[in-house]
Sequence to fold (159 residues):
Amino acid sequence: MSKVLVIYDSRSGNTAKMAEEVAAGARLSGVEVEVKKADESKPEDLLDADGIIFGSPNHFGSMSEKMKAFINDSVKVRKKMENKVGAAFSSSGTIGGGGETTVFSLIQAMMIHSMIIVGDPLDATGHYGAVGIGAPDDNTADICRKLGKRVGDLVKRLA
Ligand SMILES: Cc1cc2nc3c(=O)[nH]c(=O)nc-3n(C[C@H](O)[C@H](O)[C@H](O)COP(=O)(O)O)c2cc1C
Fold:
């Protein structure tokens, strides 16, 4: 069965809540879904996933240090990541505070891994990935689920 892995960091719980919504959306595709914290994950966890969704709080417009540490460590599996489907989400403190640049910092790493990156589906309101302010409200939760489902659906199509 195809698998989607959600790896995230969260200091105060907001990105963690987004991760659960993203995972719920991916499950709607009928794929296996696993959710893990970055500091409890190892690079090898990435290998049996067909789709990988990274989430991070916005720390100064970029990913958190724990996400960065995990991604730096993933250089160990660098040659084995090509053509996995990737997407990203982030929680910020404020609109215009760097949510999209944080998503891009995660997407950039995925591109370096030669992954296939997807943004929000057309029926969501975002562009580059799910971005929320604080804990996800109903709208952000809906966007998270749609992003997860898009990754799940694409992983199944590519299988
Ligand atoms: C070290 C640090 C840096 C932050 N930098 C920003 C920032 O540049 N812009 C912003 O909008 N929010 C910033 N925040 C706020 C967090 O992104 C926001 O509270 C987020 O919802 C936290 O997610 P979490 O609960 O998953 O940790 C920062 C928070 C911390 C702790």
Remarks:
- Residues 35 and 52 are 10 Å apart (CA to CA).
- The longest helix spans residues 138-158.
- The radius of gyration is 14 Å.
- The chain has one domain: 3-158.
